[in-house]
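Teaching assistant's notes for section 4

Start the section by putting this record on the projector. Ask students to predict, before seeing the second block, whether Ferric uptake regulation protein will look compact or extended. Collect guesses on the board.
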Amino acid sequence: MPYEEILERFKAQLKIMNLKVTRERLMILEEVMKRKDHFDADQFAADLSVSGVKVSRATVYRTLDILHDMKIVHKTTLGHKHQHYENMVDRAHHDHLVCLKCDKVVEFLEPRIEELQEKVCVDHGFEIKDHSLQLFGICGDCKEADAEANN
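Reveal the predicted structure now:
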């Protein structure tokens, strides 16, 4: 989806919510669109500050929530006590493997898991709106490093 289309959708959403289209909100959208990683709102605000963009943490959080509602970003905990976000524009749904030692996040999509989740919902008369699957463990690099340290 072209940036201009996303920008117009964002402006329209702000208008619906009776919120002003501010330079800060537009900068947040622009920066989110550049991101390809999983990020938390506090680090994102700090990154904006380092690049010279003055914006309050509250504005960052509110704007990320608006972008989440618009399905521009996805938010998940990734095993931490705070939310992480990721840009979902032109990206398909996926799930995550999270290393408990180094915090590495691996994205994956397994159609059989998706089919099974859909079947479970149908079997229980449940209409799914969204989901997030996260598997926690130790990544191959950390397992290898542990094995080397123990030899």
